[in-house]
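Bug report

Summary: structure tokens for RimJ/RimL family protein N-acetyltransferase differ between web form and batch submission.
Environment: batch mode, default settings.
Steps: 1) Submit the sequence below via batch. 2) Compare with the web form result.

Sequence submitted:
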Amino acid sequence: MTAIPPIPVPVRGSFIRLEPLAAEHLPELFEAIGHPEVFASGYGGGPSGYRDTLDGFTEFAKGYYAWEKGNSYAIRLVGGVHDGALVGTSTLSDFDLPREHAHLGWTAYDPRVWGTAVNAEAKLLLLGIAFDAGFGRVKIQADSINERSRAAIAGIGATFEGIVRRDVRRADGSWRDTALFSVLVDEWPRVREGLERRLERYEGRPVEFRAR
């Protein structure tokens, strides 16, 4: 199957829905992820990438997200007392059509939904979008010092490929080593089944905010 760029359209799951990210989402996104603990372990270039005002975050976001070269999504909750709340973002980008490669990244969530069904279903939906579009390999990566993200990526069933040393500059000018994972199309049925089993544990209960 030949890979094609997926069309960015809204996608609804049981716990979340994805909406193509737009500038009008930025105030809500800042409210969700504009917290030092989100940037502490490498997101957005690390702690020096953190902006504590909406204007600063908007400037950061304009240069950070794949507005034209990829599919960035806002993530909203479905159901429950927090129905419709914007709780994070994630992106499919770096599309290499001849090699059927894509990158799932730029992911951050409101700390109040860490450890809930949100990440598992976001990965289920986004990986499904990529493989349905004909991609054969989806890369997922994190700063090597970001133990939370590395554990979350491994926890969905992605394969650890190694450490890419001195890979990307952090916001403070230091060089980050990148922990590299991937999911191949042949592995997708196993990964999908594992994610679906994880989501079944929530028994369809809507996501509720945890204490920040």
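Above is the batch result. After comparison, the two runs are identical; trailing whitespace caused the diff. The chain has a mean pLDDT of 96. The domain at 11-201 is CATH 3.40.630.30 (Aminopeptidase).
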